[in-house]
From TrEMBL:
Coiled coil: none annotated. Signal peptide: none annotated. Pfam families: Lactonase. PANTHER family: 6-PHOSPHOGLUCONOLACTONASE (PTHR30344:SF1), 6-PHOSPHOGLUCONOLACTONASE-RELATED (PTHR30344). Residues 144-172 are annotated as: Disordered. This is 3-carboxymuconate cyclase. It comes from Microbacterium suwonense.
Length: 366
């Protein structure tokens, strides 16, 4: 039996999820069916889930509470808290775990904060260690000490505010660990992809890639070629970034996420990559479609390939698993399984749909 953990919105985020859910794919009579099995860990609005690379530990972004928490497997379909929830920031919406499992990066949509946590040997999150220099300055000169000294530097809007307009707000939305140990984060509000270096207990900005104003970079995926693909929520595009020999990143190409996408009506959410690296998948909330894009050349260009019905309302998250695309429909309260063409990777018909309370993230269970 194939199993998945399911994140969702609860009462504090106008949803009906009661915690981290448990979803199974059961084989029978030549066909597979999705089944929601119930709550694996009662917790408020675990809207994003991330897996430790080697331990049976799951990390949840508790978006409404602005906290992050670790959970360890305690049975086939249950998880228990591994330490207390730790403060993150307003509307923490995404978590990324380092490849070696020693660091977790939390991105906070509400206040734009990017927060780094350590991970202990057993997988539990290590509380933020105070910056001794900052504490000394606070004691000697009366400066206000930061609540969390592992916070990364706040972003600044690279574009001037037009006359008569209100200043824009920073909205950190995702993080990806890059080859060589650096970290990329998106700022949806300021149209930035920010490149960081881990230093001491925090993060130090290395440089930033500025995307066109109003594009809204949301989620990213690292291609095996070394290119970084970024989907934009506001402009319905996929940007591809490339790194130079000096380690700097820059824009390589851009394409529309879907030939039918309507800016202001459609809002791309997740970006997922096929196992062979030849196809990208994004889902458009609004038209409720799934768009497949072909990766060309050595990964530096992308072009639309095919379009299909997502089978859900408001497809917030999706992933590729064994030739099937699983799509979480936030507003329909369902998870759909879409068959993928074995030769082209194009999405085909919806194989099955299962009910799930306000699903926002799907994570394969070990």
């Amino acid at each position: 039996m194939t199993r998945f953990w399911v994140g969702g919105y609860g009462d504090d985020m106008q949803g009906d999820a009661e915690g981290i859910g448990f979803l199974s794919v059961d084989e029978g009579r030549g066909a597979s069916t999705l089944t929601y099995r119930g709550v694996a860990a009662p917790v408020a609005s675990p809207s994003w889930l991330a897996q430790h690379p080697s331990l049976d530990v799951v990390y949840a972004a508790l978006e409404g509470a602005g906290e992050v928490q670790a959970f360890a497997r305690s049975g086939e379909s249950s998880l228990h808290p591994l330490g207390p929830a730790l403060a993150a920031g307003d509307s923490v919406c995404h978590l990324a775990v380092s490849p070696v499992g020693r660091m977790l990066i939390a991105s906070c949509y509400g206040d734009g904060r990017v927060v780094r946590y350590g991970i202990a040997d057993d997988g539990r999150l290590v509380p933020a260690a105070p910056d001794k220099a900052a504490a000394l300055r606070a004691a000697l000169f009366g400066e206000e000490a930061s609540e969390n000294e592992t916070d990364a530097a706040a972003a600044s809007d690279p574009y001037p505010t037009p006359a008569g307009d209100e200043p824009r707000d920073s909205h950190a939305h995702s993080a990806v660990f890059l080859p060589g140990g650096r970290i990329a984060t998106t700022d949806l509000g300021f149209d930035l992809v920010r490149i960081w270096r881990a230093s001491g207990t925090g993060l130090t900005i290395d440089h930033e890639v500025v995307l066109p104003r109003g594009t809204g970079p949301r989620h990213m995926v690292m291609h095996p070629s070394g290119h970084l693909h970024v989907v934009t929520e506001y402009s319905c595009e996929v940007f591809t970034l490339a790194s130079a020999r000096d380690g700097s990143w820059s824009l390589a190409s851009a394409t529309t996420a879907s030939p039918i996408a309507q800016v202001g009506v459609d809002f791309p959410a997740e970006l997922a990559l096929s196992r062979d690296g030849q196809t990208l998948y994004t889902a458009l909330r609004g038209s409720n479609t799934v768009s497949a894009l072909r990766v060309r050349g050595s990964g530096e260009t992308v072009e639309p390939l095919a379009l299909a019905d997502s089978g859900v309302d408001w497809p917030r998250h999706h992933l590729v698993h064994e030739g099937v695309l699983l799509v979480a429909g936030q507003r329909s309260g369902t998870v759909a399984a879409i068959d993928l063409d074995e030769r082209t990777g194009a999405p085909r018909e919806v194989r099955h749909t299962a009910s799930a309370p306000t699903p926002t993230a799907i994570l394969p269970a070990r």
